Amino acid sequence: MTARSSLLKTASLAALVTGALAGTALAADTVKLGYQLPLTGETAQYGQDFRKAAEIALTEFNAAGKPFKAEIVFEDSRSDAKEGTNIARKFVDDKEIVGVLGDFTSGVSMAAAQVYKEAGLPQLSQTASHPDYTKISKYQFRNIATQAQEGPYNAKWMLSKGYKNIAVIAEQTDWGQSVVSGFTEGVKANGGTVVFSEFFNRGLKDYRSLISKLERAKPDAIYTGFFYEDGAQFLRQVQQLGIKTPVYSTSAAYSPKLIELAGDAAEGVHLTSNFLPTDPAPHIQHFVTEWKAASNGAVPGQFPAQAYDAVRIMLAAVEKAYPNPTREKVRDALAQTKDFPGVTGKTSFSADREAEKELVKVEVKGGAFVPVAD
Amino acid sequence: MIDPYYLQQLAIGLSLGMTYALMAIGFTLIFGVLNVVNFAHGEVYTLGAFAGLVLISATAPPVFAVIFAALAIGALAGFSLERVAFKPFRRFTDEASLKSRAMRESTLLSSLAVSIVVREALEIVFGSQMRSVPFEYLINTPVRVGPVILVTGDFIIFGVAAAMLAGLQYLLTRTRIGLSIRAVSNNPLGAKYVGIDTDRTIIMTFVVGSMMGAAAGILTGLYYGAIFPAMGFVPGIKAFVAMVMGGLSSIPGAVICALILGISESMATTFVSSGWSDMVAYGFLILTLIFFPNGLFGARRERV
């Protein structure tokens, strides 16, 4: 027993030493990034898409003959704030990591951000859209329009269509709360009324009680803050109950899966987006082709596109900081990002590290997302 | 005159409660009646749904073939689950081990382990995103009953749950196998001494209970139109609460409590935010444990 365990120890020690040696040998021309994202658990589908998008971006970068190679360490946060902070500590302790991507949800991104703030490690989330996230420190960046931008934009859109009394529902998360507050402010500022607002738990199966309750307030239209799984269930049950009130949503619901899961119940849903896979621009079509090749011909939604851009923005910043990129130099390079030509439009970071994005209005027509003028 | 709004909420609550009851029946048979701590029932439910989905996408079969496939996978899953997570703990046949609570409750962890492995394996094979069921298989065409709108699935689920309940009550009270299940649950050692094949009885119960779990999975999948690896978790918790409320060993008790749970949740949505409706289930669980340690319908066993 003891002989065996000491043998094991020696073996693992040897492995460690060779691993460390290999690490330093690589470090000369390899730059390491961290990516924290949910790879298992209830939100795993998003994290797995992010990893796929990141790998496409990484392969392209490493094949482009740059002066250095990049490497991304993926860590599974399970969308759990505690896991997220543990990963953040791990990334901070790894002195080779000069920049971090992720996390998926605003809640976990903000929990991890406290660690990155102390250590001075730049963090770029592809999706965290809670207004407070970038306010944590000068190290937090995001590549997504916030609900503070999107809410008022959608409020004006709905009011311009003549909907004065609007019901709002959103998932019970940091993000969902920012959906409701951003939109409600926009509606009030433009002379409309929010007649009903309520939160539901992510992953709720049966929305019929909520829908019946909502309809009692007799709204002209419903504004929703959900992702495609919840969205598909909601839309189907709206149809089942024979309700015809128009439904509007945020860019978070913009995914081909929404239409696949909801079928004809998704017809007529209006939402905003900043990525259109049908856009003929060559760099967008290039990403769509690569994505299809990696996922059995499925069309990418907005989130993978944002992750792809986030990784490329980070890599561009590292390249600018090269040679000898430090965490501080990468942060400064990120902050200078201007008109980065991504698949989700041109991205610049404002002084408070917000991505300035252009939104496109979209309607579901004939089983597809179709851009509309108003 | 009652406000049609409340009738609609009542109908929604009943149909919600039926989906919980469907899951609770098989769960209570294994966990409550046989008295075996089993936390892998939710994954049997998920496996049943995936078996149906795979068959649907492969060959477009008639609906009864889909249900049959789910039942077959359920039986297989129940058998394998028992073999992997439960049988190893029965290898000691001495009196002390058979009486030991610790031995019996260690399956809490082994069944939980199996459930995690199955769920993660499903995620690797099928991906963790929701998969849609082709529309012609869905059982949610709206049906108007007076002022209330229901869907076809509500009636199908009601029929299946009623048949399961009646069948099991008959099995447990009128047949030899039912008698032996109750004997094993009451006193495994005593059952062994009077010549009951305890191993066979336990395997049979697992097979029957898991078939019901798998049927519940595919029916709920066709009802909501979305199938994914984590789908068994929430219904598992609701079924657990219904079982504890019903007094662990009583299947009709679990069914009634599942209905109470569903109605309470949908009614609660009227008065509090929907975000709090899960509180109802946990609130009931705590209240039951504090005020009715034997459950609402159970009196037979020691405290739940």
UniProtKB/TrEMBL annotation, chain A:
The organism's place on the tree of life at top rank: Bacteria
Leucine-binding protein domain sequence ranges: 30-367
Signal peptide range in chain numbering: 1-27
UniProtKB keywords: Amino-acid transport, Signal, Transport
Keyword presence, Repeat: no
Family per similarity comment: Belongs to the leucine-binding protein family.
Protein name (record): ABC transporter substrate-binding protein
Organism: Azospirillum isscasi
Automatic annotation (TrEMBL), chain B:
InterPro entries per the UniProt record, alphabetical: ABC_transp_permease (IPR001851), BCAA_transport_permease (IPR052157)
CDD domains hit by this protein: TM_PBP1_LivH_like (cd06582)
Keywords tagged on the record: Amino-acid transport, Cell inner membrane, Cell membrane, Membrane, Transmembrane, Transmembrane helix, Transport
Domain of life: Bacteria
Alphabetized Pfam families for the sequence: BPD_transp_2
Keyword Transmembrane listed: yes
Location of the protein in the cell: Cell membrane
Entry annotated with the keyword Transmembrane: yes
Bilayer topology annotation: Multi-pass membrane protein
Annotated TM spans: 12-37, 44-60, 107-128, 148-172, 202-224, 279-299
Main localization (coarse): membrane
Family as reported in the entry's similarity comment: Belongs to the binding-protein-dependent transport system permease family. LivHM subfamily.
PANTHER family hit by this protein: BRANCHED-CHAIN AMINO ACID TRANSPORT SYSTEM PERMEASE PROTEIN LIVH (PTHR11795), HIGH-AFFINITY BRANCHED-CHAIN AMINO ACID TRANSPORT SYSTEM PERMEASE PROTEIN LIVH (PTHR11795:SF371)
Protein name: Branched-chain amino acid ABC transporter permease
Species in which this protein is naturally found: Azospirillum isscasi
Lineage: Bacteria, Pseudomonadati, Pseudomonadota, Alphaproteobacteria, Rhodospirillales
